[in-house]
Amino acid sequence: MKRQCIKIPKKKGESARRVLLDFELLDNSLKIGLDETFLYLPLSREPLSHELADLPVEAELSEFDFEPQEKKPTPQDLLGFNPAYELIGDIALLEDESLDSQTASKIADVLLLAQPNIKTVVKPLTPVIGEFRLREFEVIAGELRTETVHREYGCRYKVDLARAYFTPRLSTERSRILSWVKGGDTVVDMFAGVGPYSILFAKSKKPLRVVAIDKNPDAVRYLRENITLNSAKNIDAIEGDAREEAKRFAGTADHVIMNLPHSAHEFLDSAVLLTKPGGIIHYYGMTHEDDLFESSVELIRKAAEKAGRKIEILEEKVVRSYAPHQYNICIEAKVI
């Protein structure tokens, strides 16, 4: 099958392969192609500019007719159904909280057998609750831990799932928001967590400055570790309440990230305060299918009017389904 790939001289093939693995760009379902001079490394997705920049200078985007790898048994093959789980680093997080112990244990054993990259399988005991959006977990199988390092778009995020909220499901969304950021911009991430938005932005070398704020001391500790882990520059990690920190950075932000979908509306006054004229608020919410955007837009508009300002809606997007008839949405609003 014809697929996009990296064409690289054979002598540089291993170094290019390692870069693609680091960025999770190598499509392992296909055999690496070769001819007398070049290797052809199949890509799993469209690479970002900073990812291409890390490849050897001889690398170029191309196409090649690849052969599929011999298929190994999948969890679905072994179980007879497709288990629902998130993969965070080397931890598989079972998504169904109602699973009985026997079924959960069977799924965990199969995941460890079929997916060598999985070292721990956990089951949530509670939904996401509390000010810091945390859950309690039970380790079903594998190593007794909830800490891992997750790789995404060439960044590494160390996180303890029991101490700081993290989901890999927003990886594409984080890349989408990055596309809005221009060279020299200042970005304020009001609810930064361990840094998946902030560090991606800082590593892209687009923003002049990233201000990453979170109230959870454990999240900020991991955020600071991740800044070092990723050699990220021009990023400030701040432990504090976003409302109070907004007063310090009033009128400085070209972009304000509000990824706290259940309660971001409570912080809209502070987001408007942060945003410079012409700056953009990236507002996340949880809404019903009967009112995906209208009520949220009105909340943003009222917050702007309270400050004597106006908004222009640039984009409205459904990010993902969250629950029956409930959706995680994002609204890009320019504050004038």
From TrEMBL:
PROSITE patterns: SAM_MT_TRM5_TYW2. Residues 85-336 form the SAM-dependent methyltransferase TRM5/TYW2-type domain. InterPro entries: MeTrfase_TRM5/TYW2, SAM-dependent_MTases_sf, TRM5-TYW2-like_MTfase, TRM5/TYW2-like_N, Trm5a/b_N. GO terms for biological process: tRNA N1-guanine methylation. GO terms for molecular function: tRNA methyltransferase activity. Gene3D superfamilies: 3.30.70.2580, Met-10+ protein-like domains, Vaccinia Virus protein VP39. This is tRNA (Guanine37-N1)-methyltransferase.
